[in-house]
Amino acid sequence: MALFATISITFIPLLIGIILLYGTYKQVPTYESFVEGGKEGIKIAIQIIPFLVGMLVAISVFRASGALDALMNVLRPFMKAIGVPAEIVPLLFIRPISGTAALGMTSDLIAVHGPDSFIGRLASILQGSTDTTFYVLTVYFGAVGIKKMGDALKVGLLADVFGIIIAIVVVSIFFGTR
């Protein structure tokens, strides 16, 4: 275990050092390139802020209005019929919208049901197997000015659905059902 801890602690500084040495070897002005990258990062962060605020407000309205709860109640019988615990349904809907909210839900599910429970394992795998599709489209596409994102939305949501299905199948096969 100590070997893995040592590797994880030294990996990133070692990688940065190798990149700097390679850049110096190739006669790239490494410090100036670093500063330019920092400037670009700040510009991008400022461009993203309005989209980020809009997305956070939309998420808050969606949850506070009761729309998420209503959607969960409609889908709960179907999810139960296919063997998916009702407790996991909110995570299925919030994960494509907000990574932070999904992480909070995952933490709550693990705290209540335990990390080795079917629900805890399913929540953990769902957390890592799908992406925040709406967040990515809203924030990143908006920041670079892409207006037509219909195809990207379809592909992103399709990937989310496949991630959810595969997570349920994998947890069911390897860890059994509830």
Commentary on this structure:
α5 runs antiparallel to α6. The protein has eight helices and no strands. The chain is globular. The protein has 178 residues and is an all-alpha fold. Helices cover 81% and strands 0% of the residues. 18% of the residues are buried.
Most strands sheet: none
Taken as a percent bin, the fraction of beta residues is under 5%
Percent of residues in helices: over 70%
Output the number of helix runs: 8
Structural class category: mainly alpha
H/E element sequence: HHHHHHHH
Low-confidence stretches: none
Which descriptor suits the 3D outline?
globular
Please tell me the overall pLDDT: 85
Question: How many E strands?
Answer: 0
What assembly state would you assign to the polypeptide chains in this entry? Answer: single chain
Give the termini separation: 32 Å
